[in-house]
Amino acid sequence: MAIISISLQDEILEEIDKLQKELGFSGRSEVVRAGVRMLLADSKDKGKLEGKLNSVLLLIHAQKVEDTVTEVKHEFEDIISTQIHNHLREDKCLEVFILEGDATRVKQLVQRFQTSRKLDYVKLIVA
Ligand code: NI
Prior knowledge:
By secondary structure, the chain is an alpha+beta fold. It folds into two domains: about 10-45; about 50-125, Alpha-Beta Plaits (2-Layer Sandwich). It is about 45% helix and about 30% strand. It is built from four helices and four strands, in the order H-H-E-H-E-E-H-E. It has a four-stranded antiparallel sheet with strand order 2-3-1-4, covered by helices on one side. It is globular, with a radius of gyration of 16 Å. Nickel (II) ion binds near residues 63, 66, 85, 87 and 93.
């Protein structure tokens, strides 16, 4: 097994330690491995998507990055059929997009949000 070093924000490290205790992982590496496995499975599922899709995209982000999200949103108006914007505790926004359109466009949108370091949570659910 290879050993790599990664840099994480203190906030995320605290969350990892909390997860480790709550879920009974043997160490931080176990938590990171489980997370990476989920990301890989997710990416594999996404790879299989093709043709016309109906899907739901969930986002959670800090209120202060709303402009970034709005900018991306406008680039993808062709596939966003409905959007719900709700305010959560701690100045967080929850966004729900109902998407309808070609898998290629849906994947592009998800990728834009997933690679942006500004969002807390991005999840695509395909109907
Ligand atoms: Ni908001």
